[in-house]
Amino acid sequence: MTFESGLTFFIAIFLFGITPGPGILALLARGMSQGGNACVPMAVGMSLSDVCYMLAAVFGLSALATHWGEVFVVIRILGAAYLLYLGYKLWTSSPTLDETDVPRLRGNWWKGFLQGFLISASNPKVILFYIAFLPTFMDITRLSGSDIVIAAGLNLSALLLGVVPVGYLAGRVRRYLRSAKAVKRLNRSAGGLMIGAGGYLALRG
């Protein structure tokens, strides 16, 4: 992999990462309801899931998307249902001005990580994107082990650089709220985003 192709690959993945979709909607919802720090584990989970799909494309595992289609449909529906559930919990949560009392939905680092991983893993069409996308920047039939490591590192860092700030920007909104009524509106906005992400994922088919 040349420096030019690596740089172009990094920029393209960065733009891909911030493209609106179920992952970005879920990050916005989490940032608005729980703050920017709560978005970091979710962003890491989402990014690592994408890297797994990239590696699957590199190693020729795209057949899974064809021969195991029914399994992927089940995964997608379960992921969508989970997002809808989280959206409902946000929509109906009691307003609070104390960020330390934010949910019930906060959980621990690993819970956020698994949520993010599930959101990206629930979208098997990502692997088809990488199958069509990677040959534009590299000959995947001639990649060395070091090339694959570099590509995975560029992919992960570009995604994190793109999605983590999204969560922090959404988290800043909550700092300016001064009434329970405003917090309630924000929770409902975040819940609506999460429900939208679940519906988007369910209907993509």
TrEMBL record:
Q: Which InterPro entries match?
A: LeuE-type (IPR001123)
Taxonomic lineage from the root: Bacteria, Pseudomonadati, Pseudomonadota, Gammaproteobacteria, Oceanospirillales
Q: Which organism is it from?
A: Cobetia amphilecti
Q: Which GO terms describe its cellular component?
A: plasma membrane
What topology does it adopt in the membrane? Multi-pass membrane protein
What does the UniProt keyword field contain? Cell membrane, Membrane, Transmembrane, Transmembrane helix
Q: Does the keyword Cell membrane apply?
A: yes
Q: Does the keyword Nucleotide-binding apply?
A: no
Which GO molecular function entries does the Swiss-Prot or TrEMBL record give?
Answer: amino acid transmembrane transporter activity
Q: Where in the cell is it found?
A: Cell membrane
Q: What is the recorded name of this protein?
A: LysE family translocator
Primary residence:
membrane
Indicate the transmembrane segments per the record. Answer: 6-28, 40-65, 71-91, 112-133, 148-171
